[in-house]
Amino acid sequence: MVHSPRHLKIVLLLPLMVTIMLVSSGCKRQGLTPVGPIEAVERDSVVALLSTVNQDGIRAAFPTLENYSYRRYLRTEQYDDEDFMVAFTEHNIIVNTGQDGRSSVITQADSGGTFDFGFFKRFVSENVEDTDPVDLIPFILDDDPIYLQPKNIDRYSFSAVDDTLMWDREALIIDVRAKADLADGLNVRRVRHYVDRATNQLVAMYLERIDLGMLFREESTYYVHIRPDAGG
User: Fold this and answer.
1) Which of 46, 164, 194, 211 could serve as 158's disulfide partner, Cβ 3.0–4.6 Å?
2) CA dist 178 to 49, 113, 141, 207, 210, Å?
3) What local confidence, expressed as pLDDT, does residue 76 receive?
4) CA-to-CA distance for 203 and 121, rounded, in angstroms?
């Protein structure tokens, strides 16, 4: 009679011990893995390089568009649940700037399929003749980028990859990527900075982001580049 209660007591405690071990193990997997010294040195070197890049040209590009004539290409696509494209529209637009102000001409238009936006129809803009493109700089060049914030910097990897040619200029590519399983919940997933080697000017940006809302998930990709005018 004495042995039986002891046996039952052990059986009841074992599941409790297993549960505690599983919870503890789960917590460890969710924590940040310390960055090694070599990776930290490489990261700090790239971050220091980023801090010296001149962003003035690309930041001023959209506000000064009113002084130029330019071409716009607009394309809108809709995909179904299986990632098949069900509809699209595209327009080529020339915006001319002269003494009488600006005017736009649609030189080519094409479309296919039927859009079905449902509830989100109210948010869709059909004004393709608007002469002013959306200023993308606030979307790609935050004053305090999430990947450079001290609380998040270990959740991203930083690297300076091979150079590329932007027209006839050599540009360094600085790549920033969210680390798998460590950057969950952070909307910026990947960024590429293209830096003119000769002038240290930021001449192009590529950015991938995921924004979660109450009703939908939005995945966005941005690519913006600037090109020197005839005056350099």
Assistant:
1) 46
2) 19, 36, 17, 12, 12
3) 82
4) 35
- Residue reference for tokens 């936006």: 117
Residue 158, CA distances (Å) to 54, 59, 146, 209 in order: 19, 23, 13, 17
Q: Could you give the 3-state DSSP secondary structure of residue 45?
A: helix
In the chain, CATH 3.40.1420 covers 36-63+135-232
Sequential DSSP letters for 197-232: TTT-BEEEEEEEEEEE-SS-EEEEEEEEE----TT-
Query: Across-strand partners of 210?
Result: 219
Q: What are the tens digits of pLDDT across the range 35-91?
A: 788 888 999 999 999 999 999 999 998 888 878 888 888 888 888 888 899 999 999
**What is the distance between the alpha carbons of residues 52 and 47, in angstroms, rounded to a whole number?**
9
What is the 8-class DSSP label of residue 135? Answer: -
Annotation: CATH topology of 36-63+135-232:
Inhibitor of vertebrate lysozyme, Ivy (3.40.1420)
Amino acid at 116: D
Please tell me the pTM assigned to this model: 0.72
